[in-house]
């Protein structure tokens, strides 16, 4: 049997009872052999005595006596041999049991010494009766420094003895929770650590409790990591809960959609149900790009800018993340800004018409005067009696042509200044150029400047609002005419080029050029003393709303080149070739 461990201070009754547990009947076999031997010897001496005194032995012959004596000797020998065999068998069994017990003890001791969990045994008086090497490494104290120690233990934190004593009282009372106790200890070098302690009762073979077995695990680093993760999670949740965006995560299950996460904004708007997520989903399925969509939510009467993304949840499921930003106010401001922009554009057109009022009056006065003259001539011929059908028909046709001309001028002015919603449509490029130059022609003739339009064959149609684009082109041509007011050159060109899927308009003047090109498109910046500085800014806004671009550059030959582009409209089979050149 293994010897009593020297580092244990438990009472010897536990080890004694374990040591002699199976020795209760060990003495029977040798005592039985001894008794049998004494009985045989007594019988032998009794037979010898009978041999000398008994009449029976006197009558018996010598051979019979020898046979009986041999029988007793053989019987005694067999009994001794059997007893010795039984004793040998028991001794062999005991040797095997002791070897197995020693191997088991060595294995458990090696396992105990290699484990990182500190083991400690307290006796019923609260003294340390046993510690394993892991406990010593954990505390930094040797076995000799710990065994037999009572409270306060060397590893108790100074100044917190009352707290440690309450923990020990809970331990000694047997009321330790199954989840263990979290205790703080101090190593020999003064460093402190946190451990979790589990307790179980230690009993002897008779079932009587002789102490408490405690196991302690250092949880300082796991606790630090856990607290760091908890703090990071709390910070992350604080950020998510504080966002104005509605964030939700939904998984598709056999029972429908399951809301896995929703922040405070989502819960405030849609509650704790996935219906809000489905409402903003707008019927989209499958893989989502990171492009956002604008979606109206009738349940909350608001517009949202929604982004979707598929991701893998913590349990491995593929779920849908949705981020929805309330853009109701933004859309309201955009609508107001668009209305204001339309008003500015209308004002700009009215201003343009105001500046051209005298010229337009002169332009209208010509056909009206011609109509009056033709009618008076017809009346005069009728009065004189010299009228013929041919002469009257000619005068009336000329009057009708002048009236039609005046009507076109009035109709063009009404279309230009009329306020209407932007209508993007397929528009022939030459139609935009012709209408814009019809208006600019009046100012050009007054300034004695020629306008030449260069349009290639088969130029594609553009997708635009014709009134707005005519306003842009007219504004650029008028600026060019004004810049050439005192120039020795008398030609302004409007050239059309095809640049891939874009149609480029180029207005070239030979005026005084650009003085501050970087500020040309700033609001309220103007090179004219009477200008408001909004014309070019409005033009750029109109072109950009058509997904085009407006820019200016100096003309190498003097003057300025204004460029703007418009997207080509989709081709249709009935598209007709475009006039190759239009000269005004």
TrEMBL record:
<feature type="domain" description="Histidine kinase">
    <location>
        <begin position="359"/>
        <end position="570"/>
    </location>
</feature>
<feature type="domain" description="PAC">
    <location>
        <begin position="179"/>
        <end position="231"/>
    </location>
</feature>
<dbReference type="InterPro" id="IPR036097">
    <property type="entry name" value="HisK_dim/P_sf"/>
</dbReference>
<dbReference type="Pfam" id="PF08448">
    <property type="entry name" value="PAS_4"/>
</dbReference>
<keyword id="KW-1133">Transmembrane helix</keyword>
<feature type="transmembrane region" description="Helical">
    <location>
        <begin position="25"/>
        <end position="47"/>
    </location>
</feature>
<dbReference type="InterPro" id="IPR013656">
    <property type="entry name" value="PAS_4"/>
</dbReference>
<protein>
    <recommendedName>
        <fullName>histidine kinase</fullName>
        <ecNumber>2.7.13.3</ecNumber>
    </recommendedName>
</protein>
<dbReference type="InterPro" id="IPR005467">
    <property type="entry name" value="His_kinase_dom"/>
</dbReference>
<dbReference type="InterPro" id="IPR000014">
    <property type="entry name" value="PAS"/>
</dbReference>
<keyword id="KW-0812">Transmembrane</keyword>
<keyword id="KW-0597">Phosphoprotein</keyword>
<keyword id="KW-0472">Membrane</keyword>
<keyword id="KW-0808">Transferase</keyword>
<keyword id="KW-0067">ATP-binding</keyword>
<dbReference type="InterPro" id="IPR003661">
    <property type="entry name" value="HisK_dim/P_dom"/>
</dbReference>
<dbReference type="InterPro" id="IPR003594">
    <property type="entry name" value="HATPase_dom"/>
</dbReference>
<keyword id="KW-0418">Kinase</keyword>
<dbReference type="Pfam" id="PF00512">
    <property type="entry name" value="HisKA"/>
</dbReference>
<keyword id="KW-0902">Two-component regulatory system</keyword>
<feature type="transmembrane region" description="Helical">
    <location>
        <begin position="68"/>
        <end position="88"/>
    </location>
</feature>
<feature type="domain" description="PAS">
    <location>
        <begin position="103"/>
        <end position="175"/>
    </location>
</feature>
<dbReference type="InterPro" id="IPR000700">
    <property type="entry name" value="PAS-assoc_C"/>
</dbReference>
<dbReference type="InterPro" id="IPR004358">
    <property type="entry name" value="Sig_transdc_His_kin-like_C"/>
</dbReference>
<dbReference type="GO" id="GO:0005524">
    <property type="term" value="F:ATP binding"/>
</dbReference>
<dbReference type="InterPro" id="IPR035965">
    <property type="entry name" value="PAS-like_dom_sf"/>
</dbReference>
<dbReference type="GO" id="GO:0000155">
    <property type="term" value="F:phosphorelay sensor kinase activity"/>
</dbReference>
<dbReference type="InterPro" id="IPR036890">
    <property type="entry name" value="HATPase_C_sf"/>
</dbReference>
<dbReference type="Pfam" id="PF13188">
    <property type="entry name" value="PAS_8"/>
</dbReference>
<dbReference type="Pfam" id="PF02518">
    <property type="entry name" value="HATPase_c"/>
</dbReference>
<keyword id="KW-0547">Nucleotide-binding</keyword>
<dbReference type="InterPro" id="IPR001610">
    <property type="entry name" value="PAC"/>
</dbReference>
């Amino acid at each position: 049997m293994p010897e009593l461990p020297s580092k244990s201070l438990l009472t010897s009754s536990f080890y004694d009872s374990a040591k002699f547990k199976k020795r209760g009947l060990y003495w029977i076999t040798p005592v039985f052999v001894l008794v049998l031997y004494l009985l045989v010897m007594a019988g032998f001496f009794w037979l010898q005595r009978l041999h000398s005194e008994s009449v029976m032995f006197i009558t018996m012959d010598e051979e019979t006596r020898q046979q009986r004596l041999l029988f007793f000797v053989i019987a005694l020998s067999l009994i001794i041999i059997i007893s010795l065999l039984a004793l040998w068998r028991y001794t062999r069994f005991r040797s095997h049991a002791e070897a197995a017990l020693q191997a088991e003890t060595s294995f458990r001791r090696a396992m105990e010494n290699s484990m990182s969990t500190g083991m400690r045994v307290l006796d019923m008086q609260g003294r340390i009766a046993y510690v394993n090497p892991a406990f010593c490494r954990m505390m930094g104290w040797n076995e000799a420094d710990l065994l037999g120690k009572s409270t306060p233990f060397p590893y108790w934190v100074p100044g917190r003895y009352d707290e440690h004593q309450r923990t020990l009282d809970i331990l000694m009372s047997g009321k330790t929770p199954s989840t263990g106790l979290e205790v703080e200890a101090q190593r020999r070098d003064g460093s402190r650590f946190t451990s979790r302690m589990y307790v179980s009762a230690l009993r002897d073979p008779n079932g009587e409790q002789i102490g408490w077995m405690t196991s302690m695990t250092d949880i300082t680093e796991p606790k630090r990591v856990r607290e760091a993760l908890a703090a990071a999670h709390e910070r992350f949740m604080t950020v998510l809960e504080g966002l104005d965006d509605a964030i939700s995560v939904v998984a598709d299950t056999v029972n429908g959609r399951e809301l896995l996460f929703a922040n405070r904004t989502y819960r405030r708007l849609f509650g704790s149900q996935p219906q809000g997520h489905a409402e903003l989903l707008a019927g989209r399925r499958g893989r989502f790009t990171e492009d956002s969509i604008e979606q109206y939510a009738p349940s909350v009467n608001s517009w949202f800018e929604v982004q979707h993304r598929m991701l893998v949840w913590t349990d491995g499921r593929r779920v849908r993340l949705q981020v929805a930003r309330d853009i109701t106010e933004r859309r309201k401001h955009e609508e107001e800004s668009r209305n204001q922009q339309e008003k500015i554009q209308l004002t700009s057109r009215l201003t343009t018409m105001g500046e051209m009022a005298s010229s337009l009056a002169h332009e209208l006065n010509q056909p009206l005067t011609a109509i009056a003259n033709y009618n008076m001539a017809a009346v005069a011929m009728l009065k004189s009696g010299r009228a013929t059908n041919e002469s009257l028909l000619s005068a009336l046709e000329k009057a009708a042509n002048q009236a039609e001309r005046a009507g076109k001028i009035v109709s063009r002015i009404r279309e230009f200044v009329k306020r209407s919603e932007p209508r993007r449509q397929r528009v022939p490029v030459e139609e935009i150029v012709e209408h814009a130059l019809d208006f600019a022609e009046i100012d050009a003739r007054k300034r004695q400047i020629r306008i030449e339009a260069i349009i290639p064959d088969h130029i594609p149609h553009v997708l635009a609002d014709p009134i707005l684009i005519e306003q842009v082109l007219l504004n650029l041509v008028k600026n060019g005419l004004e810049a050439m007011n005192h120039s020795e050159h008398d030609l302004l060109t409007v050239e059309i080029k095809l640049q891939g899927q874009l149609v480029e308009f180029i207005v070239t003047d030979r005026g005084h050029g650009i003085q501050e090109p970087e500020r040309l498109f700033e609001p309220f910046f103007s090179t004219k003393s009477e200008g408001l500085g909004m014309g070019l800014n409005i033009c750029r806004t109109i072109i950009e709303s058509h997904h085009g671009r407006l820019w200016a550059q100096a003309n190498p030959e003097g003057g300025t080149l204004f460029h703007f582009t418009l997207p080509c409209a989709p081709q249709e089979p009935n598209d007709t070739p475009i006039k190759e050149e239009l000269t005004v």
